[in-house]
Design goal:
mainly beta
């Protein structure tokens, strides 16, 4: 089936999941868990229908009841959906290599797209069952820095599922699959870059990923102070010697004008020769948002880690980051940043990415973002890599 036809069929199929009497509310999956690289999905789809038809199937298909207007609180009455589409275009220029024996197409204008569906259901009003579905073709040279989604044959693919629920007044618990161990961590950073390299604010390794079966919990002490722990592992080998496990913890304070966070993350490297060694990293991030108009917010990050699979002389590394962002520059926002392009291994030269971006909201459902960056290349006699690209995002 052609992609366009699939995009038409997908929302129609999702509509069958909602009861005719359900009332949808706004949901932002990015505030719950980072399921997708789509950063602008904010508006929930509405399933309101005032017709007299009745359905015995609750929103999300949770169960059957005798009538659609006799809910007793045991099941959720609403399922919401949010949709996002990104279109990409860009050019990346690096040093030509005529001896490579292949066509050098890095100077070409390339394009791509991705599509995301976020589904949310609440059963108690305080919990949240979240599902992310993606499709796309966005890994071409020239637009890769946007970190768009690419799926096999551009087919709709499950990207992650999670169930989040409160435990008492202060504890939030998350379990899921396709989720990072750091899903409940708080990174003290307000730099809203569209780039894939600097979007972690210098916390490249301590915010452990692993993307398998996941469990985590967060505790809210009040007044902006939080703590969280998380685990992610292979579905076939959970928390045993054969599986590749990731785990970590995070403590953060976030306020209106400043915030700071400390994160520790550990990931088994899966290298047989070091008996499944464990790589670990510590990270510190902070931000400051001035009250005076015209001044930019400031975000910084620093990370130190050790790679257990490397020899002692080259197993330590660092990452650094700094970013400034003006929330109002003309009709949009503007940011500039610099950070480690890759881990800076001890006794080697650091390689950085320097960037600038501008984000312009055309209307409530459409945003245009431009990005310009330069990536250092440490190879002697080789030019740095330069990229210019544009992303147009739709949310509905």
């Amino acid at each position: 089936m052609k992609l366009f036809r699939r995009l038409l069929v997908a929302p129609a199929a999702l509509g069958l999941m909602a009861p005719l009497s359900a009332n949808a509310t706004e949901v932002n999956l990015n505030e719950i868990s980072n399921y997708s690289d789509i950063e602008s999905i904010e508006l929930a789809n509405s399933f309101d229908d005032n017709s007299s038809n009745q359905s015995l199937l609750l929103a999300g298909g949770e169960g059957l009841v005798d009538s659609s207007d006799s809910f007793d609180g045991s099941f959720s009455e609403t399922t919401t959906a949010s949709f996002g589409v990104n279109f990409y275009a860009g050019v990346e220029k690096d040093d030509d290599n005529p001896n490579a024996g292949v066509n050098d197409d890095d100077d070409n204008l390339t394009t791509g797209y991705d599509f995301s569906i976020g589904l949310n259901t609440s059963f108690t009003g305080e919990d949240s069952l979240d599902v992310a579905i993606i499709a796309g073709d966005a890994d071409q040279t020239g637009i890769g820095e946007f970190g768009g989604d690419t799926t096999t044959n551009e087919a709709l693919t499950m990207d992650g599922i999670a169930y989040t629920f409160p435990l008492g007044d202060n504890i939030t618990v998350m379990v899921g699959d396709g989720q990072d161990a750091s899903s409940l961590f708080t990174t003290a950073c307000v730099y809203g870059t569209p780039s894939d390299t600097l979007d972690d604010c210098g916390v490249k390794n301590a915010n452990v990923e692993n993307g398998g079966v996941m469990a985590g919990a967060a505790y809210d002490f009040g007044n902006g102070l939080t703590a969280a722990v998380g685990y992610a592992g292979s579905e076939a080998d959970v928390a045993n010697e054969e599986g590749k496990d990731a785990y970590g913890f995070n403590v953060a304070y976030t306020g209106d004008s400043y915030g700071v966070a400390f994160t520790y993350g550990a990931l088994e490297d899966g290298v047989a020769r070091d008996n499944m060694g464990t790589d670990f990293a510590y990270a510190l991030t902070a931000y400051w948002t001035p009250e005076s108009d015209g001044l930019p917010s400031v975000s910084v990050g620093y990370e130190y880690g050790e790679d257990d699979s490397e020899v002692a002389a080259s197993d330590e590394y660092t990452n650094v980051f700094a970013g400034l962002q003006w929330s109002e520059v003309g009709p949009g926002s503007f940011g500039v940043g610099i950070g480690s392009k890759t881990n800076t291994v001890e006794d080697t030269d650091a390689q950085y990415q320097t960037e600038a971006f501008y984000e312009y909201p055309v209307n409530d459902g459409m945003t245009i973002t431009g990005l310009v960056y330069v990536k250092d290349v440490s190879t002697a006699g080789t030019d740095d890599t330069t990229g210019v690209m544009v992303k147009t995002s739709f949310s509905f």
